[in-house]
Design brief:
- The chain is α+β, with helices and mostly antiparallel strands and 837 residues long.
- The protein has 6 domains: 14-179, no CATH class; 184-256, no CATH class; 265-385, no CATH class; 398-472; 663-739, no CATH class; 741-836, no CATH class.
- The protein has 26 helices and 40 strands.
- The strands form 10 sheets. An 8-stranded antiparallel beta sheet has the order 3-2-1-5-4-6-8-7. Strands 19, 23, 24, 25, 26 and 27 form a 6-stranded mixed beta sheet that branches. Strands 10-11-17-16-13 form a 5-stranded mixed beta sheet, with helices on one face.
- Strand 32 and strand 33 form a beta hairpin.
- It is elongated, with a radius of gyration of 33 Å.
- It starts with 13 loop residues before the first helix and ends with a strand.
Length: 837
Amino acid sequence: MNLAGASDPFPGELHDWEVMLTRTLLRSDAGDGDAIRSFEITPETLAEFCGFGQEHGARAEAAFRQALVADPYLLWRLEHGRRCAPGDETPGCIAILALSLLVDSLLDGDYSGNGEYRTKLRQWLGVNRSFMNLRGLALMWEELAKWLEGRVADGAPFRRLILPTPPPSWTHIGYTRYLSFPARRDLRFLQKQLERGDATVNDPAALVRLLDPLVALSDVSIGLREAFQDFRRAFRAGEASLHHRFWRLVERAGAMTGEIPAQPAELRMEYDEDRRRHFRIGTLGAATLSNMTSMGEAAICAVIAESPNLGPNVRRGMVLFSSSGLASWSAVSQFRPMAGPFHMAIADRYGRVAEKFALFERSGEWSVSVEPLKPATVSEIVDRLGLQHVSESVHAVGVVDGIRVGKAWLGAARFLPSLTGINGEVEVRPVEAGTEGALSCVDGRLRADGAVDGEFVVADEEGTWSRRVAFTAQAKVHPDLRGSAYRLDEVCEWRSRTTSAAGRIQAYDLAWSEDRYGFQDVIEAIYARGRSGLDEGDAIAIIDRAAGEESWEFLRTLQEATFLDARFRSRWRGRIFTLAEPCLEIVKIGGAAAVVVSGAIPARLEADFRDTVDLQGGRPFRRVSRTGLGPPLFGATSVDPSVLGAALGWRVKSTGEVPDGSAPAQLISTALIGEGYEAVSGWDWTRGRFRLKSIGMEGVSLIRLVHPGSRDHDIYRVTGRTTRKFVSRQAAILDAYAQAGLPLFSYGEGALNRLAAEGSLPLEVARALRLRTLVNGGLAQDGWRYQVGEDEARWMANLLPGLIAGVREGDLNGQFLGSRRGRSLRRPVWMNGGIQT
């Protein structure tokens, strides 16, 4: 920043410095509430605290000196301590204590002669005073520690101060000498050791071994010796943090030598719809992760191999994965027995030993356990391999694996975050509005019986680290939906659609159902995370916490309910899911105009819609399926759609697109050839689902083909009377059943039930159907179901000829029971919640 011409860029009064230093040194507004164990006060840091670059350090120092010298009580405070009672926002002594630390930094920690500190203080202030009595400094340090302790106890966002224990004879400046860290010579010392090349920033174990004898024998500051000893103890106990004051100094020294410290990494093992493994990697907390086809490929990537949290585990040849669901598992840097079960990945050199205890399958140059292992089994394997339980790594103590809502976390019980880089017991206490006992920490995962709202402090029992964590029970409404993902092509399954005016719907007895929707927390989580789009793996990882093995079915249900739009990733395998823009679709109910809400609607928008309809004199309705697991459907009667849309800021659709034609001609196929693709799964006609490596070629076959490098989309190839290829899994299943002459659904008792374990209506048909039935279909408690009347059943039978048993296309009475067969295949029938053949 250019300060040329600036009349008063730095604080002019001592009180202004007090306020600024309190804000920058003592508060924990950003959430990091670690206890303070040292301060670095130099002319350069003073400039940074004021918002300027280090090059303005001399001007900041001059302004600070001018404010101190102008205080008529300065000398009295140095001798006697704080003069006035502290306030709630400032302790009334931090500016004077910063002066004591600045003088120490100017001495560079060098106290080779007696009286050097007092001499430097006299010279810096420009006063003729001996300063033999500086007892006030020690008193102010003790008063500051008590003040901070009280503010933290009151729930204010401040950090505790851990006072050192200097020698008994150091009664004046002892605290200052121990708390002043680092000195310039400390940085020079570490820079010199790193330049030798015997150890690096990215190998903390080697660096600790190198420095252990040198720190004790070298001319370094007291602060460095204390910080190193504390870090060494934590490192050997498996509790060393990237945020430790010593490690931050190491990173600064590494940057001066040109060595860039590696960032903590994230490694996820995920399962696709056919339970086929794949891996994703990236830096911890990154918005997007890169796809890898095997554990071996992930292990050799620099972002993993060189990371401070996972790199040591990869180098020793064993990585453990922990999970909060079934479809997504995350690599952990520490083995915490109570946090199991675990999937274990081992390098080839350990394969023969580990396979004596569990079943493993190859994944590149590594092997991964087929089933999750109990902690006792993991311990037995680790012991037999001769590996240590404590990882020689530096951990990032933080809050992870939750759903961010602005600066807070979603407080839904199933989506509470975890703590990483910790050991031992964790204390959780509420701050102000937080509810006592509402939140606890068990084995590193935050837990609660219900939704959590408010602010909490999470800390270890010894007070070495602390975090302030805020929660909100509901997602905040996004002001807009944007991002590059919204420019990608949407997934379409039906070719021909006609523009049609609002259809007539029979007069339902519509009311606002107050029934609680069991997956509302999933809606809130996906909405909170999805403003810029969600990768397929991220979407499943969220849903997996609630839906488990039915996660993929629930994801499809959200698409059919218009909550999510699926879009193909550009030139890469997989899909991106974006939140659908809320809109009002005009329909006819009982001959009168009404509206149905489509799009992504979290709880706050739901409440806003209801209140707005009430204010306009309309009648809102909310319908929750009795057996289905799809989200509620909202709408309103007796309203002016355009006025309602303007009040809500939502688009109004007066006409909709209705699918026409029939499936054989209208299901969208692909021209992708699939040369070099791998056949990874096939349709099992007896079970009605895909199975890995179960590829039957008799009659009609349906095979899933995957690009070996994940550089293109999956292809589903149907071979029967004709060979057709699809990028839509659902469209391929429909075409396979059509070519086999088998029904995929049966109609009866006002519902369309799926006869197989997989498959659904084309997306466009399902979305049009919800406007006719005023209920969202899809995943149900005992399978897959759409609530339909006879008119809707006949309409769909014409669209899907031969695919719906119980009604014939064109049959006016709907009494025809389908029994068509083909290719000598037996028709599966849904009975007693299962498939019978």
